[in-house]
Design goal:
heterotrimer, A mainly alpha (80), B mainly alpha (471), C alpha/beta (314), A: 80 residues, mainly alpha, Non-ribosomal Peptide Synthetase Peptidyl Carrier Protein, Chain A, B: 471 residues, 2 domains, 0% strand, globular
C-alpha cells in the first residue's frame, strides 16, 4: 500500500513539476526538486487530495514540504 | 542616528564596550537601553509608538484564544502600516524636489521601523494563535525583539521563535566578533562607496522634471536597481555584523539576487525576510483556500500577495504599478513553465548569462515605477519613454551621460565612470568577496585595504539615508 | 595577545596611511593650475583690476577686454556658485601671494544675499585648512564639515567627489611641468553648455513669485570682504550687470534688496553701480539665464563696463 502511495505521489510530482527524472525518499524536501516552489506547492497539495480522495487542513498542507512527512500524512488519511 | 554617521560609530563603540564588560545577565538590559537611546535619536514619538505597539501585541498574544482581540490586533497592526505609509507618501512630493541624493524624509522620524516590527508582530500573533509556541511572558524580551536597534530601521525581519532564543545566551565568541567586524566593513563599503556613489545619477533623472531620452531613463533605473541592492543589502550586512558582535544571529536577507535566472528565483533571493512573511502568511493561505482551482489559485494568490506587498512599501500608484509588473512577470513565467516545457534549452553559461540579463532588465523596468517619487513624475517619465523618436539620444554626451553624471565636465565624468567601474568590479567578484568578508577570521590586510578604499572613494557629505528607511 | 598586536598594528598603519594620503592629496591640489586657490599662489597675477564674485562675472567679464580698452592688467578671480564667504577666502589668498590690486570689482545682486543662491564651497579650501583664518571661515560656514576635519584625511574624503579628480589632475600638471591654467586670466567664456543642469526646475524659482530672504551670514562676509579690501587701501566698486527685464516683475522684493545693498555700500563709502536701463536688457537673445549673457551679450557688456571703468579709475 505504502509503495503504491510512493509511486503515485512520484507520478503526480513528475506531472506537476515537469521533471521526468524525479527521485524521492524520506528526506527529500522542496529544495531538492526543481520546479517545486511556493507557487506549485499548493497545486501539488490539491492534486494529491483529488487523486487520493482525501483532505488536508492548512497546517498539514504547509508541513508537506518534506516528502517523508507528506507520505505519512497521506497514509494516515487514506487508511481512515 | 543612521548607520553611516560619526554618531553611530561612537554609539556602537560605547555600547560594545559596556556590553563586553557587563556580566552576561546584564547584557540584555544593555541592549534594551542602547535600543531606547537609538530610537530616541530619531524621535521620541518613535519610542512611544514602538512601546505602545509592543504592549498591545504582547497583551493580545497572552489572550490569543480570544478571537475578537486577535483579529482586532492584527487589523490594528495592518492599519498602522497603512496609516503610516499614507502619511509618508502624502508629503513625498514636498520632500523630494531639490535633494542631492535620494530620500530624506523627515516624517520618518514619527515612527522609525514601524513597517518592519509590525510585520514581526503580526507573524508572532498568528503563530501564537496557531499554537506553534506559547506567548511570551517576559515583556522585556518581547520589547527587545521588537526594537533591537541593529534591525529596527530596515530589518531583516525576524521570526519571534528565531530571535527569542538568541537573547538568552548573549555570549559572543572570538569568531563571532571577527566575523561581525568583517560583515560590518563589507556593509559599509557597499553603502558608503557603491550605493552612495550611484545615488546622484539616479536622483538626477528621477527627482527632476527634465526632458530625457528613453534610454537615459532606463539606464537610470538600472543604476537604481544596483544602488538599491547595495544600499539595502549593505544595511543588512551592517545589521548582521553588529549583531554577531553581540553574539546574536540575524537571518540573511539577500542571496545574490542580481544573479537570478528567473523572476521567481529573484523573489527567493531578494528581501528574503519580507518575502518569507508574505509567502507564509498571505500567499499560502490564499493559495490553500483556492487550491481546488489549481493554476487559477496561483494567479489570484500572486495578485493579492503583491498588491498587499505594494501597500506595505507605500500608498501610491507607483508602488501598485511596480507590483503589477512583478505579478505579470511571475504569472507569465509560471504559465510558461506549465505549458511550454517542450521549449527547454540546455542550460550552460551563455544561456544562464542571457537569463540573468533578462531578469535584470525586467526588474529595471519595474523599478522605474518603484523609484518614481510621485504619480506626476511617473507620468512625465512614461511620456518620455514612449516618445519614440527621442528614445535613443542624438547627442550621447548631452542627453545620456551628462544627465546621469550631473554634467559633462571632466570631473563629473570621472566621478561617474569611477562609480560604475567600482560597482561593476564588485558585482563581478561579489561571491568571492562575500566569502572573504563573511568568514570568522579577520584578515587584517583586507581590513586595512577596505578601510582605505572607503576613505578614498566613499561619500561622506550629505549624510545620505538608507533607501528602505522610508518604509 | 597576538591578535591584540595585530589590531594595534592595523590601526597604526591605517592612521599613518591616512596621514600620508592627506599629504598626497594636499600636494596634488596645490599643483592643479585650473584651481584658482592654487593658481594665484603658484602663478602670481599682480593684476591692477581684480574682478570677483560668482558665475556672472566669471562668465561675463573679460580681463583681456579690460586690458585692451582700459589699458589696465586684470584678473578674473570669480568662481561659479560662490557666495561672499567663498569670495572672501579667495581674495584673502590672492592678497597673500599677489601684489594688491588697485581696484576690486565685485559683482553684487539681490540673489547674493539669499541663501538659496550660490553657496560656500568648502571643498575648495580643503588643502588650506592649516591657515587659521581659512579654518575659521570654514567652521562658520560649514560646521558639519568642520567637525570631521581633525580625523586624518577626512577633510578630503568628506568631499571626495569634488576633490579626487582635481588631485589626479594636479599631479598631471606637476609631472608635465604645466605653467598655466586652462583659462589663464580667469575668465570662462559662456560657450554652449553641454547639459542644462536641471534648468527647468531652476526656472521654476523665477516663474512664480520670488521673494528674496536676507541672510545675515551673507551680509557678514560681504562686510568682511569690503573691510579686507579697504584695510589694504584697495578701491572697491560694486556692480550689478544688466538683468533680463522680463524676469523682473516676478521678483517681488528685488527693489527692497537693492535699496538695502545701496545702504550697505554707503556705509563703506563704496560705489554700487547698476548697469540698468540699457537696451540689451530687453533682448532675450543676449541672455542664457535671467542674469547671464551669452557671448554676444558679453561683448556688448564688456564695452559698456570698460567705458564705465575708465571714468572711475582714481
Amino acid at each position: 500500500m505504502t509503495d503504491k502511495i510512493w509511486n503515485q505521489t512520484k507520478q503526480i510530482m513528475i506531472e506537476i513539476f515537469h521533471q521526468p527524472q524525479i527521485e524521492i525518499n524520506e528526506t527529500t524536501t522542496a529544495n531538492d526538486i526543481v520546479g517545486w516552489d511556493s507557487m506549485t506547492h499548493m497545486i501539488l497539495v490539491a492534486r494529491i487530495e483529488k487523486h487520493f480522495n482525501i483532505e488536508f487542513n492548512f497546517e498539514e498542507a504547509s508541513a508537506m514540504e518534506n516528502v517523508g512527512q507528506m507520505i505519512k500524512l497521506i497514509n494516515l488519511k487514506v487508511s481512515k | 542616528m543612521i548607520f553611516n554617521s560619526l554618531q553611530f560609530f561612537i554609539f556602537f563603540i560605547v555600547v560594545s564596550l559596556v556590553y563586553y564588560f557587563s556580566p552576561q545577565r546584564f547584557r540584555k538590559s544593555v541592549l534594551i537601553f542602547a535600543s531606547v537611546f537609538f530610537i530616541v535619536s530619531f524621535s521620541f514619538v518613535s519610542l512611544m509608538v514602538v512601546l505602545l505597539s509592543s504592549l498591545l501585541n504582547f497583551y493580545a498574544a497572552q489572550k490569543s484564544r480570544h478571537k475578537i482581540l486577535f483579529y482586532t490586533l492584527v487589523s490594528l497592526n495592518i492599519f498602522l502600516i497603512l496609516f503610516f505609509n499614507y502619511f509618508t507618501s502624502a508629503s513625498d512630493q514636498l520632500q523630494v524636489l531639490f535633494k542631492p541624493i535620494g530620500f530624506e524624509l523627515n516624517q520618518l522620524l514619527l515612527a522609525i521601523g514601524l513597517s518592519f516590527y509590525t510585520i514581526q508582530h503580526i507573524a508572532y500573533l498568528i503563530e501564537v494563535r496557531r499554537g506553534k509556541f506559547a506567548a511570551e511572558t517576559d515583556f522585556s524580551i518581547f520589547l527587545l525583539a521588537s526594537f533591537y536597534f541593529p534591525k529596527l530601521v530596515c530589518g531583516p525581519i525576524s521570526l519571534y521563535q528565531e530571535i527569542r532564543p538568541q537573547f538568552r545566551f548573549l555570549k559572543p565568541t572570538q569568531q563571532n566578533i571577527e566575523s561581525g567586524i568583517n560583515r560590518m566593513l563589507f556593509g559599509y563599503f557597499k553603502k558608503i562607496v557603491l550605493a552612495d556613489r550611484l545615488a546622484p545619477a539616479v536622483s538626477s533623472v528621477f527627482d527632476f522634471n527634465d526632458d530625457l531620452a528613453g534610454l537615459t531613463i532606463i539606464a537610470a533605473s538600472l543604476i537604481f536597481t544596483i544602488q538599491l541592492y547595495f544600499d539595502f543589502s549593505g544595511y543588512c550586512d551592517i545589521a548582521i555584523g553588529v549583531s554577531r558582535i553581540f553574539g546574536i544571529n540575524l537571518i540573511e536577507n539577500f542571496d545574490f539576487p542580481l544573479r537570478s535566472t528567473s523572476i521567481t528565483e529573484f523573489w527567493r533571493r531578494w528581501h528574503k525576510s519580507l518575502i518569507h512573511f508574505f509567502t507564509h502568511y498571505i500567499y499560502y493561505p490564499i493559495a490553500f483556500k483556492l487550491r481546488k482551482y489549481f493554476l487559477f489559485s496561483t494567479v489570484v494568490a500572486i495578485i493579492l500577495t503583491f498588491t498587499l506587498s505594494s501597500l506595505w512599501h507605500g500608498i501610491g500608484i507607483t508602488f501598485l504599478a511596480w507590483a503589477f509588473c512583478h505579478m505579470t512577470f511571475l504569472c507569465v513565467e509560471f504559465f510558461f513553465k506549465q505549458y511550454c516545457n517542450n521549449f527547454k534549452i540546455k542550460s550552460n553559461n551563455i544561456v544562464k548569462g542571457i537569463q540573468i540579463l533578462c531578469v535584470i532588465t525586467l526588474v529595471t523596468i519595474s523599478n522605474i515605477f518603484f523609484r518614481a517619487p510621485n504619480s506626476d513624475s511617473l507620468s512625465h517619465l512614461i511620456n518620455q519613454l514612449f516618445l519614440l523618436p527621442n528614445y535613443i539620444p542624438n547627442d550621447w554626451l548631452a542627453e545620456f551621460i551628462a544627465p546621469l553624471a550631473q554634467g559633462g565636465h571632466q570631473i563629473q565624468l570621472f566621478n561617474f565612470y569611477t562609480s560604475l567601474v567600482l560597482a561593476f568590479v564588485f558585482i563581478l567578484f561579489e561571491r568571492k568577496l562575500f566569502a572573504k568578508f563573511n568568514s570568522s577570521k579577520l584578515n587584517y590586510f583586507s581590513v586595512f585595504i577596505i578601510l582605505i578604499l572607503i576613505f578614498v572613494f566613499g561619500v561622506f557629505g550629505n549624510s545620505s539615508r538608507f533607501i528602505y528607511m522610508q518604509f | 595577545m597576538k591578535n591584540f598586536s595585530k589590531i594595534v598594528l592595523t590601526i597604526i598603519s591605517l592612521i599613518v596611511a591616512l596621514y600620508l594620503l592627506e599629504d598626497f592629496f594636499q600636494f596634488g591640489l596645490k599643483q592643479n593650475q585650473n584651481i584658482k586657490m592654487a593658481y594665484i599662489q603658484k602663478v602670481p597675477k599682480d593684476a591692477e583690476v581684480l574682478v570677483h564674485g560668482p558665475c556672472e562675472p566669471l562668465w561675463m567679464v573679460s580681463p583681456e577686454e579690460i586690458n585692451k580698452l582700459c589699458d589696465k592688467s586684470a584678473y578674473n578671480l570669480a568662481l561659479s556658485h560662490s557666495d561672499f564667504a567663498d569670495n572672501y577666502i579667495h581674495f584673502y589668498q590672492y592678497l597673500k601671494y599677489n601684489k594688491k590690486p588697485k581696484l576690486l570689482l565685485l559683482y553684487v545682486t539681490p540673489e547674493s544675499f539669499d541663501k538659496r543662491f550660490n553657496t560656500f564651497n568648502s571643498y575648495r579650501f580643503a588643502a588650506y585648512l592649516d591657515d587659521s583664518l581659512i579654518r575659521f571661515v570654514v567652521k562658520e560656514n560649514d560646521p558639519n564639515y568642520y567637525q570631521y576635519i581633525n580625523i586624518p584625511f577626512m577633510r578630503f574624503a568628506f568631499y571626495s567627489s569634488n576633490v579626487l579628480f582635481n588631485v589626479i589632475q594636479g599631479y598631471k600638471h606637476y609631472f608635465t611641468n604645466r605653467n598655466d591654467a586652462y583659462y589663464p586670466d580667469g575668465f570662462e567664456p559662456p560657450t554652449k553648455r553641454v547639459w542644462g543642469n536641471h534648468a527647468a526646475n531652476f526656472a521654476e524659482l523665477y516663474k512664480t513669485n520670488t521673494v528674496f530672504k536676507w541672510d545675515d551670514l551673507r551680509e557678514k562676509y560681504f562686510r568682511l570682504l569690503i573691510q579686507l579690501a579697504q584695510s589694504k587701501h584697495v578701491q572697491v566698486i560694486l556692480y550689478e550687470s544688466p538683468v533680463h527685464k522680463a524676469s523682473l516683475p516676478s521678483q517681488v522684493n528685488r527693489n527692497e534688496f537693492l535699496k538695502r545693498i545701496k545702504r550697505l555700500s554707503n556705509e563703506y563709502h563704496v560705489e554700487f553701480f547698476q548697469f540698468e536701463k540699457l537696451s540689451i536688457e530687453n533682448e532675450e537673445r543676449y541672455f542664457i539665464s535671467t542674469l547671464n549673457f551669452n557671448m554676444d551679450g558679453v561683448k556688448i557688456f564688456n564695452d559698456t563696463l570698460a567705458k564705465f571703468l575708465n571714468t572711475r579709475f582714481e
